[in-house]
Amino acid sequence: MQLYYMPGSCALSCHISLEWSGTPYEATRVSLEDTKSETFLSINPKGKVPALRIGDDVLTEAAAILVHIGEENPEAALLPPPGLPRGRLLETLSELTGEFHPSFAPLFVPERFAAGDVCHDHVREAARRRVAAHYDRWNDRMQGRAHILDAGRSVADAYLYVMCRWSDRIDRAISEWPDLAAFSHSMEQNASVRAALSQEGLSPIND
């Protein structure tokens, strides 16, 4: 398998999960400029990461890739059992990828949400409040917990960890949310997480 990533992007969740899985893989770094190239667009026409090449096929979208990694490596126990526990995982991934992650978008591309430069500062400020509300909610949810799901470690933990790393995008430290800080610190004690960070040239946020 070959993972295409940009350092610190949501693809880091896939990178961590691949490390957890123990399966052989290759990690290929791409730049924002690379994602617009004909070469990369032939891999993922959406022009974004992550993308996971599996033989002659390519799987895109972080949630799909994370579930695939878990399903293909059951011995790593990255997914809860089928039924309601698995449904809770999918519910959590949907919230992280469909609600929390997209709430950052207005900070960087306010023109998608309002016409005219005069409105952009207001759009960004509203986005900061919305992002902070997500951190508040997840901090409450993670109170005293080492993992999101009752079943234990899962690929969802890798995605929440990425969100913890992004608090600086609203100019706030993750330490402002003590339970998320504790969770991210615990994640960074894991050798596989450290390996993924090292490969991407990233530093832990709790050192």
Keywords:
single chain; 207 residues; alpha+beta; 4 strands; 8% strand; globular
Poorly predicted tracts of residues: none
Contiguous helical run count: 9
Radius of gyration: 17 Å
Main sheet overview = 4 strands, mixed
Percentage of residues in helical conformation: 40-55%
N- and C-termini, Cα separation: 31 Å
Average pLDDT, to the nearest integer? 95
The sequence of SSEs as H and E is EHEHEEHHHHHHH
Strand content: 5-15%
Number of strands: 4
Structural class: alpha+beta
Strand arrangement in the largest pleated sheet: 2-1-3-4
Question: Care to describe what's here?
Answer:
The chain is α+β, with helices and mostly antiparallel strands and 207 residues long. It is 51% helix and 8% strand. The protein contains nine helices and four strands. The chain has a four-stranded mixed β-sheet with strand order 2-1-3-4, with helices on one face. Strand 1, helix 1 and strand 2 form a beta-alpha-beta unit. Helix 1 runs parallel beside helix 3, helix 1 packs across helix 7 and helix 7 packs across helix 8. The model has no long low-confidence stretch (mean pLDDT 95).
Q: Can you lay out the helices and strands and say which pair or pack?
A:
Layout: E1 2-5, H1 11-21, E2 26-29, H2 38-43, E3 51-54, E4 57-60, H3 62-72, H4 84-100, H5 105-108, H6 117-141, H7 155-165, H8 178-188, H9 191-199
Parallel strand pairs: 1-2
Antiparallel strand pairs: 1-3, 3-4
Helix pairs in contact: 1-3, 1-7, 1-9, 4-7, 7-8
